Amino acid sequence: MTVEIAMLFWAAVLGLVQVGAQSFALKAQEGNAYTVGARDEHRPATGLAGRMERALRNYLETFPIFAAVILAVYATGRTDMWSEAGAQVYFWGRLAYLPAYAMGLPWLRTVIWQIATIGIVLCMVPLFDTALLAVLME
């Protein structure tokens, strides 16, 4: 298993952790009666529950891009030090992002988000030359 695929796996585990964190935070806010029901009446998540909901939504915005890039690098056999480092930067950045968001640390959270996003860009490095050539040759 390559480092990139391992990090993709652990990023998926982190996604499940975030789903659970958001669920438990909403349950703590609203109680069982609301969370086990059909939730026909919308109640906005606030406080920690709201932060966990937004953190999950943000994760779900970046994870598909990360997964697509990792799978492209792996499928083309272009894994290298850039994609390895980038996959680790993304994962550890996203892992740090969750508690930073939960604690409501605005500047630090933003910096951590940017670091994780740079991780995705690093993963793309091995593909830039072949992707550019493919476009130019068309």
Describe, in plain words, how this protein is organized in 3D.
The chain has helices at about 5-30, 30-35, 45-75, 80-100, 105-135. It is mainly α. The longest helix has about 30 residues, at about 105-135. The model has no long low-confidence stretch (mean pLDDT about 90).
What order do the helices and strands follow? HHHHH
Total count of helical runs of at least 4 residues: 5
Shape: elongated
Strand content range: under 5%
Low-pLDDT segments = none
- Rg value: 18 Å
State the end-to-end CA separation.
Answer: 34 Å
Characterize the largest beta sheet: strand count, sense, and whether it forms a barrel. Answer: none
The portion of residues assigned to helices is over 70%
Mean pLDDT rating: 92
Query: Which structural category do the helix and sheet elements fall into?
Result: mainly alpha
Per DSSP E runs of 2 or more residues, the count of β-strands stands at: 0
Reconstruct the topology from this structure:
Elements: H1 3-30, H2 32-35, H3 47-75, H4 81-102, H5 106-137
Helix pairs in contact: 1-3, 1-4, 3-4, 3-5, 4-5
Short description:
The protein is mainly α and 138 residues long. The chain is built from 5 helices and no strands. The two termini are 34 Å apart.
Key terms:
5 helices, 138 residues
